[in-house]
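Worked example 2:
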Amino acid sequence: MASALHQSIEMLSREKGIEAAVVITAVEDAIALATRKFYKTTENMRAELDPETGELRAYVYKTVVELPEQIEDETNQLTLEQARELAPEVEVGGELRFYKDTAPLGRIAAQMAKQVIFQKVREAERDTVFQEYGNRIGEILTATVKRLEPMDVIFDLGKAEARMPKREQSRLEQFAVGERVRVVLLRVDRAAKGPQVIVSRAAPALVQSLFQSEVPEIYDGTVMIRAIAREAGERTKIAVISRDKDVDPVGACVGMKGMRVQSIIRELRGEKIDIIEFSEEITTFAEKALQPAKVSRVSITDLAEKQIEVIVDDTQLSLAIGKKGQNVRLAAKLLQWKIDIKSEEEKRQEVEQQMQAMGGGPTTPIEQVTELGDSVMEKLIAAGITTVEALADMTAEELGEVPGIGEKTIDKISVAVRHYFGQYEEGEERPAPKEPVASEQTADTAAEDTSMAKTPEEILAIEAAEAGGVEEVDDISTEDVIEAEERLSATDANDEADAREEGIELDNDTIDTLVAESQEISDETIDNDGHDRG
């Protein structure tokens, strides 16, 4: 019949989940230590527990050596000759044990033994926990909430306690003591106080396990989960692919009227879930990963660094980025690529800047802005501002630093530059459009512009050519020449008036010369025709 001590040891081993032999070894080690402390000796001492009587006996063990000169520790060694006097059958290397009375052990020794037993049992318990859960990382466990701490939640796993830190909790979840929830075994830490089991409700593996339990196609392998990106309590993106072309992977996960995915959402306390069809083509996958935003185009910018550029419409930019960048951040986690997202307008400006940089950029001289005036233009050129583009890029503060430029002048410069680029505010008059100047005069234009002719004959020749009725200059009559001369005189008078307006003075000698030349030309024309002008 087993002793009461042995029965207590077996009960303790079942309660702690450790083997009885481990507890017995702990008790024997504790008794041996307490006996050695009591006798204040360094002898090699061991204890033995009799399972029938429950008696604990302590023994001192000494090793047998052959010769006296081989003894290094007289306390724990003896020669072969000395050993055979006590036990004739002993050999070199064997051990002899000597009984040590444990009856004199007092309360202090018993307390010491108790502490040693508890320590050994705790160490055995920690080893058992580590062996139990060390190989189950990532597994879904059903745990009961044991207690709530200010930052952590303590769960009871049955054989051990598990801790869920604040960072592994979802902000949407609140727990009550005694509630049963599913958690992910994150890791087992072998700390100084023993192995600590860390669990999580924020790990993506929890979502994967929930889909496996709710979607039969995932459980049997028809539909595979290729990637998951999650921000616990906010949103989860999951990419799925079907091995069977007749099975829609997204539809299988959503279920009829969304029943399957709604069940998972309830388990996650209302966390949003985006289900996306996986694609091996990274550009196609990126378009789907950024849903619900509509993507205009996707291009790979750096294959080695796994970086892509996504262009969206200006109205879709905020939707593609998401609240606090959440949508694009989750998409980047899902793709395992870096995403540079831009709007159409941003991309257009970037291309324009690149083209300007490649071509050196336009350089229009500042003299083209005629509204500036010579004085302002000289000050700007003296300050090194020689192009319209450089002037347009300057701010009011930068213009104010130019010597001789005040606030009114800054306003004048702003208006002049704006007018140069064709920008007018409401109420401002635009200048009349200029007539186009042809690079070469046509025959019709030359015929109309009779003011360019130098003689009456030339005027008449042009008019005759236009009318088509005169072939030669000799056919021109005297009356025609006189009429043309009058027109020429009127044109000269107008030119003289224009010259005076422009500040050009014609002296009397110049006028007389022009009149004489005109008269000489007229006389020659009459003689050639054989007619009298009189």
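The two ends are 171 Å apart (CA to CA). The chain has a mean pLDDT of 77.
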